[in-house]
Fold these 2 entries.
Entry 1:
Amino acid sequence: MDKIFFTGWDSIIRLLIVGVLAYAGLVLMLRASGKRTLSKMNAFDLIVTVALGSTLASTLLSKTVPLLDGLLALALLIGLQFVITWLSVRFTAVDKLVKAEPTLLVYEGRMLRAAMKKQRITEGEILGALRQNGIGALEQTAAVVLENDGTLTALKSTSSGAQSALANVPGAPPTKPDDSAKPSPL
């Protein structure tokens, strides 16, 4: 019963030393891996973040996990995240594998109820997104998109063409060739 609150100074000293060193190592590795590691979270980023937290906690609290093993595990997770994001920037198939596609929920003032139901988004959440973006009525809305990180983006207007904000949103109307991309006659 006496081991519940205090097991000895050795565990306290170990926790202080390992805690400071593991924390410093994690911060250095995150800084070295770039801003993408700490970006807004989609499902892939959430998994990496939870795994990092779990690994750090195990390193700090488990006496059977040496500091070097914990730092190596943290480096491995950060390295794998770096490789996957590097590949996803270069290969569309990898990007689609690790990230959800955005979903069109409102188009030209009309709620797309089937998409809302599939994504489990309520009318109240849509209206909240409109208010946050200064849109006073559904009829004034060009589009509302559920982004791959779970946020709702409301647009007052959209355009067609390759430069349209809806160009990569499945279910959005097909984009027309952008006139500004045509070469001008000499």
Entry 2:
Amino acid sequence: MTLFWIICAALLIIAILFVAVPLWRGIAKDNSVVRDAANLEILRDQIAEMDADLKNGLLTPELHEQGKRELQARLLEEVGDTKTGEVSKKPHPLKITAVVLAVLLPLASVGLYLKLGNPNAFAPQPEFGAGGIVRDEAGIKALEDKLVQNPNNPEVLLMLARSYVELGRYADGAKKYDSLTKLVPDEAMLWADYADALAMTQNTLVGAPTSLLNRALEIDPNYAKALALSGTAAMERGEFSVAIMYWEKLMKQLPPGSENAKMVEEGLRQAHMLLAQSKGGKVAQLDQINEPAPKAQAAGQERITGTVTLSAALKGQADPNDTLFVLARAAQGPKMPLAILRKQVRDLPVQFALDDSMAMSPQMKMSNFDQVVVVARISKSGTAMPQPGDMQGMSQPLALGSKGVKIAIDQLIR
């Protein structure tokens, strides 16, 4: 803020110099000498006329001499007045203008900035995480106070909604997204995020969340998050062909070979496999399917427990407010999460337990597979999809029911 005012002061000084200095120097030159020379020339002309009149007998010598004395006296009076005026001369108008501008220009500039500018632009603001997320209670309280003053501020509503979801307050986040979609009804992102938050409160994407996703895709048929969640919702409903349609459309938008593309590709393989089974077909008939059908596990025996720690080498790169995901995925098969637990880096070391109650859909449960891999990922963006800059660690393939699993987060995703 101080630097800003220093720069403004410097610019004002330069502006004043450009305006005032030329005015100060632009005083008209003294023309008294020119005026005296003109008066002297006039005097000479008049004396010459009087001499001619004397010669022609039009003037007597006495009148001629008296006239000359009068002309000389008048000339002396005019010269004396000029010198007196020079001594008592008032300040030149251009100098007065230069001084007035030097005073008024800074006052006018500051006044206009205070009226039209934003004096609070450099004031300290709450620290936001990625995507405008506030992770501390003081920041949340500040946003809530702003919302009280202006309940229809979409920017504050969006920050609060994302922050509530980040802190696990899914119901509060869903309420804010509901208000947002009424204020900004034509934004696909808001409808998809609303569906995501509502699904976290209901533990399912079926029903109201699906309707919200449909609205998002009406606005933008290619919105990636809406396509991804719509495919998951279709898997929950057992509509595998619909899930394939959404995910194939999503695959066209993802960079080939990226982590997200691999996850969606594995989801497609699982959907094809389940679709073939539902129709009584053979999985082997599908070229892209080469893993065996999942094998059901007795309920309650699928639980996997263990501890997640962060390696010393990466501690300096993780913020205590960063999101920590602990998830299980099939060792052979789709890489989509079968169970997921959400914490924060400040909770490390974390004791975890994963089971079917944390499944994202009935068809995608831990108990459907013989072996799973447990992944622990620190997300800078707050989303479960891996991004460059995230940190992660993973286990070897584990049998269901494994206990005391130890996972160290020691890899940086690039």
